[in-house]
Write a structure and sequence with these properties.
single chain, alpha/beta, Rossmann fold, seven-stranded mixed β-sheet, 7 helices, globular
């Protein structure tokens, strides 16, 4: 969701990136799949039979990881405004999850509360750090609002943000709904990147 324009130099550098190559080798649709895998290995996000909602799921890297980890008895529901090439075992709903009508359809498909809500969404970057941080936090806040409604007690929430003004306040906001909240940065995130993942466990 919200794809950033990429120059030739960026594309060339990405091809030499070991995490990009690892994603390709494992047939993942995006490098971001490696980030989610690393977070899962460290914190144990998924379990067999879990129900997972992937917000802003395109191109589908995170949905692929979730599908692998929850097993045949689990469910993965993906939603995005962008087109999504079908994935075996992943249910896709096209639309903006912030739209009340789309949310109503999501809850209808869920039927029961989810075990995990995750979001790797980022805004289209403006090049102005303060603006990009604020836009990313707006998306994360919308994901949090959905997760609070969609998760079962004890459920997990994971969302991407950019570190900057408002980041600490967002952590405090999330902590009002979960037992455990932590900002994490997997090793596959580049050193210079301001991205962080807010991990919240134990929906109150």
């Amino acid at each position: 969701m919200f794809v950033r324009p990429m120059g030739k130099a960026w594309v060339k550098a990405r091809r030499h990136d070991r995490f990009y190559r690892a994603a390709k080798k494992q047939a993942y649709r995006s490098r971001a799949a490696i980030k989610l895998s690393q977070i899962d290995r460290r914190y144990g996000l998924f379990h067999e039979g879990a129900v997972v909602v992937d917000l802003g799921a395109a191109p589908g890297g995170w949905s692929q990881v979730a599908r692998e980890r929850v097993g045949p008895k689990g469910r993965v529901l993906a939603v995005d405004v962008a087109a999504f090439v079908p994935l075996d075992g992943v249910e896709f709903l096209r639309g903006d999850f912030r739209d009340p009508k789309v949310q109503a359809l999501l809850f209808e498909r869920l039927r029961d509360p989810a075990d995990m809500v995750m979001s790797d969404m980022a805004p289209k970057l403006s090049g102005t750090r303060a603006v990009d941080v604020a836009r990313a936090l707006d998306l994360a806040d919308a994901a949090l609002s959905f997760a609070v409604r969609a998760l079962r007690p004890g459920g997990i929430f994971l969302t991407k943000v950019f570190q900057g003004e408002g980041y600490r306040e967002f952590l405090k906001q999330v902590s009002g709904h979960f037992e455990f909240v932590k900002g994490v940065k997997p090793s596959s995130s580049t050193e210079r990147s301001a991205e962080r993942y807010v991990l919240a466990d134990g929906r109150l």
